[in-house]
Amino acid sequence: MMKSIKTSVLVLMGLLILGPATASANKKIVVVDSERVHRESREGKKILKQIERKKSRKQRTIDRKKAKLQKDYEGIMKSAKTLAGSKDLLKPAVYKQRQEKLQQQYMQWGGKMQEWQQYAMQEQQKLSNEASKVLGVFRTKLQAKIETLSQLKGYTLVVDKSAVWFAKNAIDITDEVIKLIDGR
Predict the structure, then answer these.
(1) Rounded mean pLDDT of 23-31?
(2) CA-to-CA distance for 27 and 17, rounded, in angstroms?
(3) What letter does residue 32 receive in the DSSP assignment?
(4) Domain span including residue 124
(5) Do 161 and 174 form a contact (C-beta atoms < 8 A)?
(6) How far apart are CA 92 and CA 23, in angstroms?
(7) How far apart are the C-alpha atoms of 155 and 152, rounded to whole Å?
């Protein structure tokens, strides 16, 4: 995405530097909303749905592990409260032994919590990488379709709408690109 924005900005800067003298009337500049193509094309919707399903599955697994850790934490806190309430009833050595055991359980819980956080971050990173890969393949296909359309229609420059402050609807070819991607 950033690469396409940088490229678009460089192309636009080049056009501004060269000035209107080099831009002839037969050159056509158009825009395409690639985000809209992702959202509205059949293939784009399919990919986004696939990514969302994977994300939901991973999130459920992450949430289950977190719920278990939360339950363990609540058990430790309940035991600590019970132990504190029975301090006067227990011999000091027994109280100290139970307190140390609780501290050890809490430390183990802390280690498990850190492992869970690392796991959650790694899973999110994996999902992000997978999504980038799938979207990259779609973007390559989108670029090829745009190039084909540009050759057919004689477009000189196609700019992503996200890199443009303003464009008249008359030069927006997003609908045509969606139809081409969908094979309509």
Answers:
(1) 72
(2) 17
(3) E
(4) 17-182
(5) yes
(6) 91
(7) 8
